[in-house]
């Protein structure tokens, strides 16, 4: 995979300020195995990046500090400190290259919901890896960035790749997949996030109680039918194959999500799913006019705080030339 990073290396002129745009994701399929002895879950997932973007700007600092500020609609729910995933990514990159004297200030313009199951933090980590590798003029390869990304979080490699991809392992083994056409989505957002660990803990209880059948980790066909449908470009074929093994857990923790899902499909969406660990619900629609109708209905629900119409697939982290 060719990332913009390799093309940008050597652009000496952009060494003071680098801007990167990075998308949110929806898991069109998320199959989850029972928790392993190491405490982690093996996954089989089909990611698709949607056209809802955070923008990260990296600026050289004279000292060796790595700092961050966040602005935008969702900024107040993100900590501007070393726990910010964008900072952790920059620290990991600097450590990997042994360049402890390099500093950076990161500004994040946040549009992706926080703790919404749309990989917002992972997106910023991916943007930070790309922006800092260009800003610091590091000799990175796409493989270096993907490797570092996987160490930061399982959704971070996909955020570099974007488009449509199959994720295996903990989600970090990403293989680009063929998808034809564009897809129209309505997103129903909630102001109250859901913590990913609590959703997985609930999933574990459901597996132990026999309420959910987990993925067989070595199942080679976990997402094959969906990938075939995506290659056809037919949203009506894709819709019945959307699925999320964490959906029951997210709905158990937030029962109102069941009402939101039912309302979106009653309003004409082809299908609705909880995105990742929730609480964002994503509705696939046959066309943009259909999506606007579904949005109008969802917007009126008291359980929904914000709605967005977006298309997919979108590119992964990309340099913005201004
Ligand atoms: P995923 O879909 O990958 O499970 P998510 O979209 O549900 O993730 P995030 O928005 O990535 O959740 O946020 C998860 C946690 O990470 C939040 O509690 C937040 O405080 C923390 N976090 C750290 N850095 C960031 C960042 N740059 N943007 C958003 N959240 C961040």
Description of the molecule:
The protein folds into two domains: 4-177, Ribosomal Protein S5, domain 2, CATH 3.30.230; 183-312, GHMP kinase, C-terminal domain (Alpha-Beta Plaits, 2-Layer Sandwich), CATH 3.30.70.890. Strand 3 (66-71), helix 2 and strand 4 form a beta-alpha-beta unit. It contains eleven helices and twelve strands. It is globular. With 322 residues, it is of the alpha+beta class. The longest helix has 16 residues, at 120-135. Strands 1, 2, 3, 4, 5, 6, 8 and 12 form an eight-stranded mixed β-sheet that branches. A four-stranded antiparallel β-sheet has the order 9-10-7-11, covered by helices on one side. Residues 84-163 form the GHMP kinase N-terminal domain. GO terms for molecular function: 4-(cytidine 5'-diphospho)-2-C-methyl-D-erythritol kinase activity; ATP binding. It catalyses: 4-CDP-2-C-methyl-D-erythritol + ATP = 4-CDP-2-C-methyl-D-erythritol 2-phosphate + ADP + H(+).
Features:
single chain; 322 residues; alpha+beta; Ribosomal Protein S5, domain 2; Alpha-Beta Plaits; 4-stranded antiparallel sheet; 11 helices; 26% strand; binds adenosine-5'-triphosphate
CATH topology description of the largest domain: Ribosomal Protein S5, domain 2
String of helices and strands: HEEEHEHHHEEEHHHEHHEEHEE
Can you count the helices? 11
The radius of gyration is 19 Å
Are there runs of 5+ residues with pLDDT below 50, and where?
1-14
State the end-to-end CA separation: 25 Å
The CATH top-level class label of the largest domain:
Alpha Beta
Principal-axis shape equals globular
CATH architecture of the largest domain: 2-Layer Sandwich
Structural class designation: alpha+beta
**Could you report the average pLDDT, rounded to the nearest whole number?**
93
How many domains, as an integer? 2
Helix content class: 25-40%
């Amino acid at each position: 995979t060719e990332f913009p990073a390799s093309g940008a290396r050597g652009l000496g002129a952009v060494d003071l300020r680098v801007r990167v745009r990075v998308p949110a994701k929806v898991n069109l399929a998320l199959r989850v195995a029972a928790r392993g002895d190491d405490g982690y879950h093996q996954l089989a997932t089909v990611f698709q990046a949607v056209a809802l973007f955070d923008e990260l700007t990296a600026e050289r600092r004279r000292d060796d500090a790595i700092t961050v500020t966040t602005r935008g609609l969702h900024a107040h729910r993100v900590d501007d400190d070393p726990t910010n995933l964008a900072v952790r990514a920059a620290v990991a990159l600097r450590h990997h290259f042994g360049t402890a004297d390099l500093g950076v200030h990161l500004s994040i313009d946040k549009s992706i919901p926080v703790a919404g199951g749309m990989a917002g933090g992972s997106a910023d980590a991916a943007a930070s890896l790309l922006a800092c590798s260009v800003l610091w003029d590091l000799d990175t390869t796409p493989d270096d960035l993907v490797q570092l990304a996987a160490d930061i979080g399982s959704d971070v490699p996909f955020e570099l790749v974007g488009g449509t991809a199959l994720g295996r392992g903990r989600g970090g083994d990403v293989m680009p997949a063929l998808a034809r056409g564009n897809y129209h989505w309505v997103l129903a957002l909630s102001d109250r996030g859901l913590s990913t660990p609590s959703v997985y803990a609930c999933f574990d209880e459901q597996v132990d109680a026999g309420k959910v059948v987990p993925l067989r980790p070595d199942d080679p066909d976990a997402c094959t039918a969906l990938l075939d449908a995506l290659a056809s470009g037919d949203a009506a074929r894709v819709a019945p194959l959307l699925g999320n093994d964490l959906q029951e857990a997210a709905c158990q923790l937030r029962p109102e999500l069941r009402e939101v899902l039912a309302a979106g499909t009653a309003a004409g969406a082809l299908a609705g799913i909880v995105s990742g660990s929730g609480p964002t619900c994503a509705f696939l629609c046959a066309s943009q006019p259909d999506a606007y109708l579904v949005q109008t209905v969802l917007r009126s629900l008291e359980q929904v705080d914000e709605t967005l119409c977006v298309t997919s697939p979108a590119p992964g982290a990309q340099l913005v030339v201004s």
